[in-house]
Design brief:
Elements (H helix, E strand, L loop, with lengths): L1 E10 L2 E12 L4 E5 L4 H4 L1 H11 L8 E7 L11 H11 L11 E3 L2 E2 L5 E2 L4 H10 L4 E5 L3 H5 L6 E4 L2 H9 L30 H13 L3 E4 L6 H6 L10 H14 L13 E2 L7 H5 E2 L4 E2 L1 H4 L4 E4 L7 H5 L2 H6 L1 E5 L4 E5 L3 E6 L18 H8 L4 H5 L3 E4 L5 H4 L7 H19 L13 H7 L4 H14 L3 H18 L6 H9 L3 H6 L1
Parallel strand pairs: 3-4, 5-8, 8-9, 10-17, 10-18, 11-14, 14-17
Antiparallel strand pairs: 1-2, 2-4, 6-7, 12-13, 15-16
């Protein structure tokens, strides 16, 4: 007898449909799984048969062929156990074949029949909506996440026995309720007022938060670079619903525990300088998302930037431009989203004391040049704001606190709303940093004095075309913060100020 069930397997941050076909016939007993299964899927034979036996079904030993279609897509992970189990029971006549139509079943089975959580359930819920499924059978701990999307009802399944009873009509399991979309909690987020002095760096941080611009802080140890970086999340606006769905899909795929509904806070990732290129960019034999994808629609903080591996840093160049990264393997070509704000920090030299009036720098000119050359010109060109963070004086350390994060965040939110209106209400991650060339020409309307100033700066500073475009984007953000429709000379002058380190770092 032939029976079919629908499952799903992760593919990037999406899910692909897997048709589980089970054929049972007489002959020398054998169970075979075909359709490019990995080791975890092949081992599902033992998990599924044992779970079925513990649920009280003693299936006769026959020739069983399990096909996972389409056959040309690798099947990985623990997602298909539940679909294989219900299709197997239907093939043996223990479940009505009709009960499996338009049902998507995903979950890992324990030997006793318990259904364990899986990764990527939000992507599976999206797949179910596209397939117009009438129900999603998912582990109970994954249902809050899937129900938050809407669409096909998510049925929380705690065990294989519950799934069998629900499909057979013996028991009706209530549909998981959609969790409320709560505002993100700001408790525990460091406040900007904790940082004394550094007004220029705070202003650059506000511009970065408003326009999603990449920032490089340069200063001696103890000047506050890391303190400033840790306070950027407190300035960022909450995620929109569309953005929450994208962030939750990434988190669901990579997190050890499933999210409880949609994620509402923007991610902040701070990998150590020893991170490998695969861990930073994504990869592996079966590709997994890297830190740049885990920072999607949030912040990627790279402290001690020159200490990172050169090949890892150079790998950032393409995703910084294209806001995505494609990982190619022999059997897979997967594209991950990577729209992040890069926030980096570095010392001015190897010892860190160049330009510090209280400490003498012991680095030679060649050592300074060698240290700075670890950051290539093309990578530096992709960073919008280069900000010097000088050592603080005693008076600055004893000075009054500056603005609180909530005050700055209100201005950032107003600027983001202006950008969203310019780019379209439904645009995901709509910020000035990702404007296309056509959008720059349309949205950055320069006043005559601003155009003249920009022309002079291009010739005198030897700016590249990319640096010129980034000045225009930063100028647009500064104008948005001040509520101006056109970009004036003051906006351009401030944006140019943040490119002044371009030549000094690469000379």
């Amino acid at each position: 007898m032939l029976a079919r069930a629908t499952g799903a397997t992760p593919w990037g941050v999406e899910a692909r449909r897997v048709q589980v076909e089970v054929d049972v016939r007489n002959g020398i007993p054998k169970v075979q799984i075909v359709g490019l299964p990995d080791a975890a899927v092949r081992e599902s034979r033992e998990r599924v048969w044992t779970a079925i036996r513990h649920c009280g079904f003693d299936l006769e030993q026959k020739v069983v062929t399990i096909n996972l279609a389409p056959a040309d897509i690798p099947k990985a992970g623990n997602h298909l156990d539940l679909a294989i189990a219900v299709a197997l029971l239907a093939a043996y006549g223990q479940l009505p074949v009709e009960s499996l139509k338009r049902v998507v079943a995903c979950g890992e089975l324990g030997l006793g029949g318990r259904v364990r959580p899986i990764r990527g359930s939000l992507a599976i819920a999206e797949l179910g909506r596209r397939l117009e499924a009438r129900a999603l059978l998912l582990p109970a701990s994954n249902c809050a996440e899937a129900a938050a999307l809407g669409g096909a009802p998510a049925i929380p399944i705690a065990s294989l026995g519950e799934a069998i009873e629900h499909l057979a009509g013996v028991r009706v399991i209530p549909v998981a309720r959609t969790p409320p979309l709560l505002p993100p909690a700001r408790a525990g987020v460091p406040d900007l007022s904790d940082v004394r002095g550094q007004q220029t760096a705070k202003r650059a941080l506000e511009i970065a938060a408003a326009g999603g611009h990449n920032v490089l802080f340069i200063g001696p140890p103890g000047s506050g670079k890391t303190m400033l970086a840790r306070r950027l999340p407190g300035l960022l606006p909450p995620l929109s619903r569309a953005e929450s769905i994208e962030v939750t899909k990434v988190r669901s795929l990579a997190a050890s525990s499933p999210p409880d509904g949609l994620v509402r806070h923007r991610p902040f990732r701070a990998p150590h300088a020893s991170v490998s290129p695969a861990a930073l960019l994504g990869g592996g034999s079966m590709p997994r998302p890297g830190e740049i994808t885990l920072a999607h629609l949030g912040v990627l903080f790279l402290d001690e930037l020159p200490e990172f591996r050169r090949d890892a840093l150079e790998g950032l160049r393409q995703p910084m431009e294209e806001t995505r990264i494609t990982v190619v393997r022999a059997r897979a070509r997967i594209t991950y989203p990577a729209r992040f704000t890069l926030l980096a920090a570095m010392n001015p030299c190897k010892c860190g004391h160049l330009g510090d009036p209280r400490h003498e720098c012991g680095c030679s000119a060649s050592e300074i040049a060698r240290y700075r050359s670890r950051i290539s010109g093309p990578l530096l060109d992709r960073i919008d704001l280069h900000v010097e963070v000088p050592a603080l004086t005693l008076d600055e350390l004893k000075g009054e606190s500056g603005e609180r994060s909530a005050v700055v965040a209100a201005r950032v939110l107003a600027a983001r709303e202006r950008q969203r209106r310019h780019l379209g209400e439904d645009a995901v991650g709509a910020v000035n940093a990702v404007l296309t060339s056509r959008q720059v020409r349309r949205l950055v309307r320069l006043e005559d004095a601003a155009q003249s100033l920009l022309d002079n700066a291009f010739e005198r500073l030897g700016l590249s075309a990319r640096a010129l475009t980034r000045i225009l984007k930063v100028s647009r953000t500064i104008a948005d913060l001040e509520g101006h429709e056109t970009v004036g000379a003051g906006h351009v002058a401030e944006a140019i100020q943040y490119r002044a380190l371009d030549r000094r770092l690469t000379s």
